[in-house]
Design brief:
Layout: E1 3-7, H1 12-23, E2 27-32, H2 35-49, E3 54-58, H3 64-77, E4 83-86, H4 104-119, H5 121-126, E5 130-135, H6 157-178, E6 184-190, H7 204-213, H8 220-223, H9 225-232, E7 243-245, E8 248-250, H10 259-273
Parallel strand pairs: 1-2, 1-4, 2-3, 4-5, 5-6, 6-7
Antiparallel strand pairs: 7-8
Amino acid sequence: MKTALITGATSGIGRETALALARHGFQVVIIGRRPSETAKTAEWIGTQTGNRNVEYLVADLTAQVDVRRVAHEFSATHRRLDVLINNAGAVFPKWELTDEGIERTWALNHLAPVLLSLELLGSLKASAPSRIVNVASSAQSNGRIDLGSRNAQASFSMNAYSNAKLANVMATYALARRLHGTGVTVNCLHPGVVATSFGKNTGGWIKSLSTLAGPFLMTPERGAATSVYVASAPEVETTTGCYFVKAKPSKSSATSYDEGLQEQVWQRALREVRAKDVPGI
């Protein structure tokens, strides 16, 4: 039985992704921030699918200490990891630092996927062929990388989110190069514009716009389709270093293909999470 670990899986496309993979027969482990909500979601997925192999872990992924802890908890209780889906993401209403001194949007949307992937790399390599799937966003096309700006500070919450998602895509490409030939693939995707609770943290006009646009947006189930495809389709088992839209390889922003900048983004992330580069690659 294959095992999938999915972050941000208590609602929206994360929950629908977990539901679909449970229906496909995966052992599914979800990560959520609120204990009661996460437990109820895992129980709901099990009930809906008849899959008894649905579990949950609790962590605040904006905190690196929690990312490391939850990776250790998973590795201590599971022999294999076939698919890691870094789905958790959010736009926050104001610029603020975590207790570890990292801007919150940057911490959750960019650094958490990098750190969790590195912390679980041993399990992924041992389970190869295996997959890392980073849920990015078309917002990456509006992002910019300012390596001189501490913690990717931006004056507007969507700017901070776009910057983090661009870095997310670039880190995907950098890690894919490092893992070439190991049997671990690394891809990212844009799920589409989905009707979820994503904008609830922002308030103001972003939240209002999300509410008004709701009837015209994708359902979470449709939005999860690309994540499920990249995580499980046999035809993309060896595909790596790609950006997917509507379950097809697509072009990310021109900036994202600058390999020199990718390396700078990657090395910056390693410094910020206090991690070493992938050994032997």
